Amino acid sequence: MAEVSFDKILRRPEVSSITGLGRSSLYDYIRKGNFPPPVKLGPRNVGWRSSDVTNWLATRQPVAG
After folding, report:
1. pLDDT tens, 12-44?
2. Is residue 45 helix, strand or coil?
3. SS3 state at 60
4. What b/e string do you get for 14-38 counting C-beta neighbours within 10 Å, with b at 16 or more?
5. Distance between CA atoms of 48 and 26, rounded to whole angstroms?
6. Using CA atoms, how far apart are residues 10 and 25, in angstroms rounded to an integer?
7. Bridge-partner residues for 47, per DSSP?
């Protein structure tokens, strides 16, 4: 039997804390296709798969400063 793995679902405040993106920036990135879209959890609730957020972070390029 195949092993089933479940992602933790992260709510927006936790995603913002992990990524450093505020609410407006987060939804702007989603609209532009630069961030994974949320998963609908209910009529007014969304969340993000932790693996999607982790993969997005791993693909980010460091900013030269």
Report:
1. 999 999 999 999 999 999 999 999 999 999 999
2. strand
3. coil
4. ebeeebebeeeebeeeeeeeebbeb
5. 12
6. 17
7. 39
